[in-house]
Amino acid sequence: MIKIKDLRFIILSIIILSGFTTFYYINLYGTINGIKSDLLKPNNKLEIVEKEINKKVVFENCKNETDESNFYNYYQFNDKESMINYFLTYQNYYYIEEYKDKQFSNSTKYNLSKYNYPVLTKLYSNFTPTIKEIDNEIDLIKKKYDNGEIVEPKINSITSSTTYRSIRAPKKKTNKKITFENDETYHSLELKKFRSRVWSDFYLNYWKDKYFLLFTLENGLSFRSPRLCLPLDTSKPLLTTPYLFLHIPKCGGTTMYTHFSKHFKVGTLQQWAHPNPAEYKKVQDSKNFIIGHFEMGIHLILNEKEQKTYNYMTMLRDPVERVISNYFYHKHSPGDPQHILARDNVIENWIIISPRGNNEITRVLSGITIKEEPVPSNDTFNMALYHLRSMKFVGITEKYSESLALLKFYTGLENPNVADKLKNSKFRPYGITPAIIEKIKKRNWMDILLYEEALKMFERQINIVGRDNFEKQLTKNYRQ
Ligand SMILES: *[C@@H]1O[C@H](CO)[C@@H](O)[C@H](O)[C@H]1NC(C)=O
Ligand SMILES: *[C@@H]1O[C@H](CO)[C@@H](O)[C@H](O)[C@H]1NC(C)=O
Ligand SMILES: *[C@@H]1O[C@H](CO)[C@@H](O)[C@H](O)[C@H]1NC(C)=O
Ligand SMILES: *[C@@H]1O[C@H](CO)[C@@H](O)[C@H](O)[C@H]1NC(C)=O
Question: Could you tell me if the CB of 78 is within 6 A of ligand 1?
Answer without folding.
Answer: no
